[in-house]
């Protein structure tokens, strides 16, 4: 590495908001696939103090309570008290349910 070059890196540890969002999104996809192995879904998550933003577009023959699932993931990750806790945070959602035909490959 040249002396006039700066090297930086980031390590996301457990409990980091980015990691928590990944866990929530992954859990949502897993839950949809458990109920419908042909499900197709995109789930996105973002966090701010006391607020979870959860967006999903999916085609699935499944009934999954995604906000409750997000709270369970947060609780398991240790967000049980303080300014950001699983029971009392707000969860803002934007869900688009696609027709079941969207499960089929193009």
Task: Characterize the structure shown.
- 28% of the residues lie in helices and 25% in strands.
- The model has no long low-confidence stretch (mean pLDDT 90).
- The termini are far apart.
- Helix 2 links the parallel strand 2 and strand 3.
- The longest helix has 19 residues, at 17-35.
- The chain has a single domain, classed as 2-Layer Sandwich (GMP Synthetase, Chain A, domain 3), CATH 3.30.300.10.
- It is α+β, with helices and mostly antiparallel strands and 106 residues long.
- A three-stranded mixed beta sheet has the order 1-2-3, with helices on one face.
- 23% of the residues are buried.
Give a concise summary.
This protein has 106 residues and is an alpha+beta fold. It has two helices and three strands, in the order H-E-E-H-E.
Largest sheet: 3 strands, mixed
CATH fold call: GMP Synthetase, Chain A, domain 3
Question: What is the tally of helical segments?
Answer: 2
Given the helix and strand composition, which structural class is it?
alpha+beta
SS elements, strand count: 3
Notable traits:
106 residues; alpha+beta; GMP Synthetase, Chain A, domain 3; three-stranded mixed sheet; globular
Secondary structure layout plus pairing:
Elements lengths: L16 H19 L4 E9 L2 E9 L6 H11 L13 E8 L9
Parallel strand pairs: 2-3
Antiparallel strand pairs: 1-2
Helix pairs in contact: 1-2
